[in-house]
Design brief:
It is a single chain. The protein is of the alpha+beta class and 380 residues long. Helix 9 crosses helix 10. The protein folds into three domains: 105 residues, no CATH class; 80 residues, no CATH class; 151 residues, no CATH class. The strands form five sheets. Strands 10-6-7-13 form a four-stranded antiparallel sheet, with no helix packed on it. The chain has a three-stranded antiparallel sheet with strand order 4-3-5, with no helix packed on it. It contains ten helices and 14 strands. It is elongated and about 90 Å long. The two termini are 15 Å apart. It is 26% helix and 20% strand.
């Protein structure tokens, strides 16, 4: 079974995490100080920057030039002066003078966090609070905020302010520091971090993983599921993850299968609250790794499924457990490429095997007369 996201997975000529680990002088990835940055000290921020530069991803010249560019309050005045609301209130000939007087009178720092980087003119009372949005455009209603603090005030950013990094910075921090091995795990990390944007933003950011995996020497590894094997791990909460073969297990983990090809599938049965049975089929490349440093989060933290927020009805995003986490797991079996899964009875070996139709990772109800306590799976 091939990866359905081939353009996002490992491509010919790219390094894998295994290549990076066994390289003579592997680049040292930056240290993670916890999955969220709200508690990082100045020293930890400094260490992160040093490590990014020492790894060859960037340079002191790049960092300095970027800081200088973001210190420039570009178009803070012209953005206001070109506003229809300001021109309506102050007149076309007076607007720029009034706006620039206001600009020069400011402290040059974000009203919320105090930074001098990426400053923007922002409304104190938002336009949504006015019957006519243009009525919000008057000089006494303006303040300076950095781009991050401006964005996190929007209703669409329900997790805004929980971390310091903007989404574009966090996308790179997760990629370069936590170093997801697959695109699916990258998306899961972004959702766990609190990002609610479309997956396309993560696909664009994932390009950096491809670029670095083709560098000389390679500075990143993308998992090659078609050519590696993995151990499948079951946790005490019935979460299922994968690790490299032979890795020592932590407390609360059990090795279900060893040396499973990345092209195989895991079939399993779960018992629903109404006593019905669901069949799930998860390709190995769908199963998250539990090998990341995620701060205080458990190793199986990526066993989640994401539901996007419903803006129209005011419903937030949700992160539900990924099957079979927190469920009643009845039976499981590895199916190799070309194999089908069959439901049979554990008590009667001569029971007619019921071939199970293909099912999504999140499960499909099965019609059966076999009692849940008797269920078992075969694959052939």
């Amino acid at each position: 079974m091939s990866n359905p996201e081939n353009q996002l997975g490992h491509l010919p000529g790219e390094a894998t995490p295994q290549d990076i680990a066994h390289a003579p002088a592997p680049p040292s990835p930056p240290t993670a100080f916890g999955f969220h940055d709200s508690t990082w000290s100045e020293e930890e921020w400094f260490q992160l920057l040093q490590q990014l530069i020492q790894s060859g991803i960037s340079s002191w010249k790049d960092a300095t030039a970027l800081i200088l560019g973001h210190l420039n309050p570009s178009q803070v005045g012209t953005s206001l002066a070109s506003s229809e609301g300001f021109k309506r209130k102050y007149g076309k000939g007076n607007t720029m003078r009034i706006v620039m007087d206001w600009v020069y009178s400011q402290s040059g720092m974000c009203a919320d966090c105090g930074t001098r980087l990426e400053l923007q003119a922002d409304h104190i009372q938002g336009r949504e609070q006015y019957t006519d949005p243009l009525d919000a455009d008057f000089i006494e209603n303006m303040t300076l905020r950095c781009r991050r603090c401006n964005v996190v005030r929007r209703p669409s950013h329900e997790f805004g302010g929980l971390t310091f990094l903007t989404a574009e910075a966090a996308l790179m921090w997760i990629l370069l520091v936590i170093r997801p091995r697959t695109f699916r795990d990258y998306v899961r990390m972004c959702r766990l971090y609190g990002m609610t944007m479309s997956d396309i933003r993560m696909q664009e950011a994932w390009a950096m993983a491809h670029w670095l995996s083709r560098a000389n020497p390679p500075a990143y590894g993308i998992e090659d599921d078609n050519n590696y094997t993995y151990d499948i791990i079951l946790w005490s909460d019935f979460a299922i993850t994968r690790v490299d073969p032979g890795v020592a297990l932590l407390n609360g983990a059990t090795r279900l299968y060893s040396g499973v090809p990345g092209t195989a599938c895991l079939g399993f049965l779960t018992l629903q609250s109404d006593n019905r049975i669901k069949f799930h089929r998860q390709s190995v490349d769908f199963i998250p790794f539990s090998t990341y440093q995620l701060g205080g989060r458990p190793p199986q933290a990526l066993c989640i499924q994401y539901s996007a927020p419903d803006r129209e009805n005011g419903q937030p995003q949700t992160l539900a457990p990924l099957s079979p986490r927190n469920m009643n797991l009845l039976a499981h079996q590895i199916a190799m490429p070309g194999h089908n899964c069959y439901l049979t009875s554990a008590q009667h070996s001569d029971t007619t095997h019921q071939e199970l139709p293909d099912a999504p990772p999140y499960g499909k109800l099965v019609r059966t007369t076999i009692a849940p306590t008797d269920c078992r799976l075969l694959a052939k």
